[in-house]
Write a structure and sequence with these properties.
The complex is a heterodimer of chains A (104) and B (657).
Chain A lengths: L4 H21 L3 H24 L8 H31 L13
Chain B lengths: L3 H4 L3 H16 L4 H26 L7 E10 L2 E9 L1 H24 L6 H20 L3 H19 L6 H32 L14 H7 L2 H16 L8 H4 L5 H10 L3 H9 L1 H5 L8 H21 L5 H21 L3 H28 L12 H4 L1 H15 L6 H14 L6 H25 L15 H16 L10 H7 L13 H21 L7 H5 L1 H8 L4 H75 L4 H22 L1
Antiparallel strand pairs in B: 1-2
The chains are: A mainly alpha (104), B mainly alpha (657).
Chain lengths: 104, 657
């Protein structure tokens, strides 16, 4: 079976959907972060796939964007984890259903 | 080159004014100091008056003026100044000298008064104002001082303010003279608009000099009459004389100084001062304004001497006598005898002050009794007063040869005799002479002769501080006659600006016998008629109707009360009614309109604007509440919304593509 663009796009869409489901349904903040990371990974996969099957596969542009994106994702994860720890210290919980103080 | 005194003539009124202020400021409770300051001030003024008198002797008709600019407004410069001429110098001497002795007399007369120092402050203030009138070379300055004199008179008439009659008399004097002063003020305005200056003498440009009189032209008659109305008020001429007898409510020295010797003479002085206005365009010495002066004077002189016959208050008799003598002076001015009028004014200043001070001494001796019917036989109890009073009485009556009043009166009779228009004033003035002798004799008999009655039983002679001024003034009343005689008419020529010659042959003139006969008739008649005077007046017994008519001052007060006073009361009531119902109604109407508008705008505000603002606020709040419902605080809800939105965008994209 030859790997085609459609295959990668399907995998990517599945990965994105799994991440979205995790982010929307889990109550634990860490799992929500993990879901977001999965959606980012899906997006990176799309970049690489479109590059690999695009008109100029010689120059490594798609990989470069993906690496940038991963670096940003790392930074985002660091900020997100720090926020979770701060929230936990304050509220003694990481259940996002309880963290509704911004309710209007 | 003017002598020093001309440029510093203002010092003469300034000194008594300073004395007055000093007394009020520093010597309020120190009686001796207060009186001393007043007398020193008056003495200084007298000294200055003598200094001012000397240069006027240098040559006949000498006159010097000193004018200064008071202030400028726009292109006009308002100038005032002072003038030194024989008229002013003679008046200065008389006022300061008589004033000085009245001040001294007051020490004794007011000894028991608790407002002793205030009295002296007022007296000094009056003296200052009066001297200001005399030296003024500008009608404006004269008017200012004139009003100050009126104020001083008001303060002094009402000095015993606790007496309601004194307060009423003060008001009456002030208001009545104010009526005349209104005329004076209008005359002043007319004079200014006509001649462009209020200075009397200004190197040929003054309003009494040729250029000013020419500019004034025919208006001079009206100006003169308006100015004369001021003189009528101040000098107690008919019909504004009613305040003067009532003014006797003031302390007697005040009556002597202000309401006999000086202030009331200011009107005569004023007419003499602005005489060129009166005599402008004369034909045989007659102008319309002078005619008015003559007849007003004649009416006043006769009316007052008739009323004096039936009065019983010693001071009121003298007051009416003053009114009649002032009328006589006016007649003299009106017929052209300016010098004669002023001579009589000066002589009158002395002997009327003497008479008033004498009456003060009598009142003092009789324990404040003023009714002559309750006196009697005082010649033994009060010999000094009796002798001096008799001298004053004879001077006033005009007993010939020895008394000053006789010569000046004779001069006036001469002047009336030579009047071109009518002989009537001459004969009426002769009748006035008889009447004067008659009422003075009546007073003498009532007060000094016969036996003592209720008030005079305990009478005593006054202290020497009061007797001395009487003696001095009595001597002056006689001594002044020396410069008045036709043989050596020094004062007459001094005032008219001629050189004097001594001519013994002029002493005895036909008129002398006439006036002797008149005076003798008056006094003799008086002695015959009033010999048996008792509680009922002999005239009242023989002619009761006439007597009552005169006793009630010819009902003039009642006439004024029922016409002028009642009229103005009616006017006041009408104005009050207008104010209450018409103007007040208008004001209330306008107010009501405002109120209506207020109610309207309140409604607009509360129902319209407020409600609108409230509604929009409520709406905003409701919207906010609705919107805030969307903010669940659930981060996953938000995320879900984002996902749904993205899905919707994707679908939209797909559908469009």
């Amino acid at each position: 079976m030859t790997p085609t663009l459609s295959l990668f796009l399907i995998i990517s869409a599945a990965l994105f959907s799994i991440g979205l489901l995790a982010a929307l349904s889990r109550r634990h903040a860490i799992f929500i972060l993990i879901g977001i990371e999965m959606m980012l990974a899906a997006a990176n996969l799309n970049f690489v796939a479109f590059w690999r099957f695009g008109p100029q596969p010689q120059s490594p542009t798609g990989v470069m964007v993906a690496i940038f994106s991963i670096a940003i994702a790392a930074a985002e994860a660091a900020v997100g984890l720090a926020l979770v720890i701060a929230v936990y210290r304050h509220y003694r919980t990481t259940n996002v259903d309880k963290l509704n103080q911004l309710k209007g | 080159m003017n002598p020093w005194i001309v440029t510093h003539l203002w010092l003469i009124p300034a000194v008594p004014l300073a004395a007055s202020l000093l007394i009020l400021a520093f010597a309020n409770s120190r009686r001796r100091t207060g009186a001393a300051i007043a007398i020193i001030g008056q003495l200084a003024a007298f000294t200055l008056a003598v200094i001012a008198f000397l240069p006027t002797l240098a040559e006949p008709g000498w006159r010097a003026v000193h004018n200064i600019t008071w202030f400028t407004f726009g292109e006009h410069a308002l100038r005032i100044g002072w003038v030194l001429d024989p008229l002013a110098a003679a008046m200065l001497l008389m006022i300061t000298f008589v004033g000085l002795w009245i001040f001294i007399f007051s020490i004794g007369y007011m000894a028991d008064d608790k407002n002793f120092t205030r009295f002296f402050a007022y007296l000094s203030f009056f003296s200052a104002a009066m001297l200001g009138v005399v030296i003024a070379n500008s009608l404006l300055l004269l008017f200012v001082c004139w009003e100050l004199v009126g104020l001083a008179s008001y303060l002094l008439i009402g000095f015993w303010i606790h007496k309601p009659s004194a307060a009423a008399a003060a008001k009456k004097a002030f208001i009545t003279t104010r009526i005349g002063d209104l005329g004076l003020f209008l005359g002043m305005l007319w004079l200014y608009s006509g001649s462009g200056t209020l200075l009397f003498y200004d190197d040929g440009n003054g309003c009494l000099e040729k250029a000013g009189l020419l500019a004034l032209g025919a208006g001079a008659t009206f100006v003169a009459l308006l100015i004369f109305s001021g003189a009528v008020g101040k000098s107690g001429q008919f019909p504004l004389h009613v305040w003067l007898p009532d003014a006797m409510e003031g302390p007697t020295p005040v009556s002597a100084l202000i309401h006999a010797a000086t202030m009331v003479a200011a009107g005569v002085f004023l007419v003499a001062r602005v005489y060129p206005l009166f005599s402008l365009g004369e034909i045989d010495g007659v102008t319309p304004s002078l005619l008015v002066v003559v007849w007003i004077g004649v009416i006043t002189a006769l009316m007052a001497s008739l009323i004096a016959l039936a009065q019983s208050d010693i001071k009121r008799i003298l007051a009416y006598s003053t009114v009649s003598q002032l009328g006589l002076m006016m007649v003299s001015l009106g017929v052209g005898g300016v010098a004669a009028g002023i001579m009589h004014l000066l002589a009158h200043g002395f002997f009327k002050a003497l008479l008033f001070l004498g009456s003060g001494s009598i009142i003092h001796g009789c324990h404040q009794e003023q009714d002559i019917r309750k006196m009697g036989g005082l010649r033994r109890a009060m010999p000094v007063t009796f002798v001096t009073y008799a001298i004053g009485m004879m001077t006033l009556s005009g007993v010939p040869l020895f008394f000053s009043g006789a010569w000046s009166k004779e001069d006036i009779l001469h002047a009336t005799l030579h009047w071109s228009r009518s002989p009537v004033p001459h004969y009426l003035m002769m009748a006035g002479v008889v009447l004067t002798a008659l009422y003075m004799t009546r007073q003498m008999i009532y007060v000094f002769f016969g036996g003592p009655r209720e008030a005079s039983a305990q009478a005593h002679e006054s202290p020497s501080v009061m007797a001395a001024p009487l003696i001095v003034l009595a001597v002056c009343s006689i001594g002044l006659g020396i410069v008045l005689t036709p043989a050596w008419p020094w004062l007459h020529d001094y005032l008219t600006g001629q050189a004097t010659h001594f001519d013994m042959g002029q002493l005895i003139q036909p008129m002398l016998f006439v006036s002797f006969a008149l005076v003798a008739a008056g006094i003799g008649l008086g002695f015959l008629f009033y010999r048996q005077a008792g509680a009922v007046d002999p005239l009242g017994r023989t002619l009761p109707a006439l007597f009552r008519f005169l006793e009630n001052k010819m009902w003039l007060d009642q006439l004024y009360a029922s016409t002028v006073v009642a009229g103005s009361a009616m006017l006041s009531r009408a104005s009050d009614w207008m104010d209450r119902f018409v103007w007040d109604g208008l004001v209330r109407g306008v107010g009501g309109l405002g109120q209506l508008f207020g109610i309207f705008s309140t409604n607009v505000d509360e129902r319209g604007i407020n409600a609108g603002v409230d509604e929009s606020a409520t709406g905003t709040r409701g919207l906010g509440r609705f919107m805030s419902g969307w903010h669940s605080g659930q981060v996953q809800t938000y995320m879900g919304a984002v996902a749904v939105g993205m899905l919707a965008l994707l679908l939209l994209y797909a559908w469009l593509a």
